[in-house]
Every structure is written in C-alpha cells, then in structure tokens.
TrEMBL record:
It comes from the Bacteria. The keyword Mitochondrion does not apply. Residues 115-151 form the Organic solvent tolerance-like N-terminal domain. Gene3D superfamilies: Lipopolysaccharide (LPS) transport protein A like domain. InterPro entries: LptD, OstA-like_N. It holds the Pfam family LptD_N. This is OstA-like protein. Keywords: Cell outer membrane, Membrane, Signal. Residues 1-24 form the signal peptide.
Length: 160
C-alpha cells in the first residue's frame, strides 16, 4: 500500500481545522489491521488507528479511504490534535473533492479560550468555516451560551 497517498487522503479530514496543508514530512501510520479490500476498492484501517504527520495527530477506531472518490470514513472516536487545536467526534465523513467534511456523534472543538460542542458539525476548508448544529454550547473566555447553530471562522477566530 502506498502510505503517502493513503495518508494524503486521510489528512483531508485533518484540514478541517487547519489553515495550511501538511508538509512533505514522512507520516507515521499505525493500526491493528491495515489492508486493501479489492471488492470495495477501499483501504481499511481497523483498531487503534493512529496517524501522525508533522504536528498533526489523528486517532480513530477505524477508517476507510477511497482513492477513487477521495472520500474518507472514520468512526469509533475520532480525535484530531494540532498545535493548540483539539477536535473530537464520534464519526467523520470527508468529501475530499468538495473539500468538506461532516462530523457526527457529538462534536467538540477546542482551542485556547474557545470550546464549541454540538451534535454535528460541517467543515469547509476552502472557506475555513465550521458550522456546528444541534445543542450547541459555546464557552469563550468567561462567557457561556447556547445556540441552535453557530459558524466559526478559523482564520479570523470569530463566531457568526
């Protein structure tokens, strides 16, 4: 399996909260089981999935990657950490060609002085906007409030 191509697609989900594309650093990819399913055309990573490149780390219980459609499915506890950003969700579906992703199963986004939790979130890394929906709870500094939906601009660090 070409780990660099596989990692590039998996890292699309990392770009949800990132403002830059990962450099050419050699990735570290670990999983209990890694294989290519010729029947579905999917690369399968199962059990203790760990992907690290530069300062970005992703973990999941499992992940599937389609090189043809540039789609990534991750589930069983998604975590992403990079610099001062942390993101957790139950699952993620990445539409690589559209440069967007949908997170579900309880989403929590954290960085210094800001925490947003919601039922679901949509991220578009072209616009650098994350929209959080359902039971949204925001803590910014000393302020706490609730909303049905909120959009966060990663570049300007502003809520809409």
């Amino acid at each position: 399996m070409n780990h660099k191509i596989l990692l590039s697609l998996i890292l699309l989900s990392c770009l949800l909260v990132s403002t830059t594309i990962a450099s050419a650093a050699k990735p570290i990819i670990n999983a209990d089981t890694t294989y290519y399913d010729v029947n579905t055309g999917l690369y399968m990573l199962k059990g203790n999935v760990y992907i690290e490149v530069s300062n970005r780390i992703i973990t999941a219980g499992q992940a599937k990657v389609s090189l043809n459609s540039l789609e990534v499915w991750g589930s069983d506890g998604i975590t992403l950490t990079q610099d001062n950003i942390s993101l957790t969700a139950g699952s993620v579906y990445v539409y690589g060609s559209q440069k967007k992703a949908v997170l579900d199963g309880g989403v929590t986004f954290k960085q210094p002085d800001l925490t947003i939790s919601a039922d679901t979130a949509d991220f578009n890394w072209r616009t650098k906007l994350g929209t959080f929906n359902g039971n949204v709870q925001i803590t910014q500094g000393d302020k706490k409030w609730s909303a049905d939906s909120v959009t966060y601009n990663i570049i300007t660090n502003t809520l809409q």
